[in-house]
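From the thread on structure requests for the teaching lab: each student submitted one protein with a one-line request. Submission from student K.M.:

"Model Transmembrane protein from Cinchona calisaya, tokens only."
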Amino acid sequence: MPFFLSSNLFIHALFCLCLYVFLSLLEIPAFFLYGLNTYVHPDDVTPNNSSRGGGGVRAAIRRPGTFDSEPKPRKKSKEKFEFDENKAQIFRLKLNVAQLQTRVYFKQFNSAFKSTVVAVSCLLLRRFLNVSEDSGILKNGSLIPLLLGLVGVCKGLILIAEISFERSASKRSEKVLSVIFGVLGFFWGLAIVSGMVPKWVLDFDFESLDGYGKLFIAVLMGCLVGFFYMPATRNARAFWLGTDQIRCNLSIIYCGWFARTLLYVNYLFVVFTSLLWISPFSELLVDKKVDGTRGPHSIVRNRYAEELVGRVGMLPSDFDKFRLWCMLSSGLLQILSLRPNVQIFLNEAVLCWYQRLHASKVPDLDYSRAKVFLHNHYMFLVVLQFFVPAAVVLLLLGLSHIDDSLLADFKYLCDLLPCSIFVKEMSLFLAWWVIFVWAIFTSVSLTLYRHGFQFVY
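Reply posted by the TA:
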């Protein structure tokens, strides 16, 4: 049999091609969001064009009495204005595949979704194939998942950077805060990789990195903080509305019981996973007595931990597998929460319309009309903000399982950079960093909402 056909490279290439064709033909990215409800706020709706009779679009919310009878004429006076209730109606539309494909940024989401699914599936396939360390990089087929993973991460970061500077999609103050937090994240990352944060606080080792490597990781950490600030705060906003923390009692705004449970589980899982690499917390879950390589600080901390919870915990090897599974689950839960989060974003425009409608006797609906339009227009920009962080976590987690023997085959690259550290160990650290930043921004935003420093309007 020819060399090419006898290697795993052919299996990886054929698998990726078939999976990409399958996702393209069935339009899986569009069907993933099929059936979401969006809203239209028209300038004027006459009774002849209303949705009575079952045809066309139907009004999601109206004033009582407008379904079966005409609005009663009111007496006009010189001091009062007559408000036309036909201009206050809002309509709900269920999006199909054709309508989803017309939205701005759909092509970017379509490409990011397919590339992420193909790359993650290829990385999983490599785990189940028999890969020989001495067979060569082409024959064992590991080159394809490595390249797909790196390309997927770079593509996701470029997309999130592109939408972060979209002029009409966010406020100027949010962009300024993103830059400020990005700079602070750089200095924070520089303190971590330079050893100012000791290992008994954070369970990562950066001693194998040289000065340029540490600077590169710190810059990348700052970029991740700046890019994921707005998506994380939007995630907190969706959680706040989806779980009905504002107590609006409008069933059209918040989620059902299943989606609400998914939002709670997703948030708690992200926070829990971010704590698993913080040593004071992780030591409560690990039985350190089976490990003889302990320092004096570890002995003291373990004694305090035993006084609190006793001698309980997992073996260090089992704990490493456990937190990797938790990281995988947090990424998958974020993707499963994508659909309810996007629906909450669309429902937020209805809440704005409702607030403006009852703000005064003669409401000004221009703001709510613009709000409904922007939420409808930039729907897939928000989809990318929810999808890209989870995709980056899954891809980095897959790259962290690349074998050292494979990375040693890149002789020219490894002469310049420590490949094992950059691709294997730093991939796991950056995946944790994304989850940690996501948990911090989400928790702080929810705290500000709870204490009234931020509000939904």
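TA comment: The beta strands are 37-40, 58-61, 90-94. Residues 8-42+89-450 form one domain.
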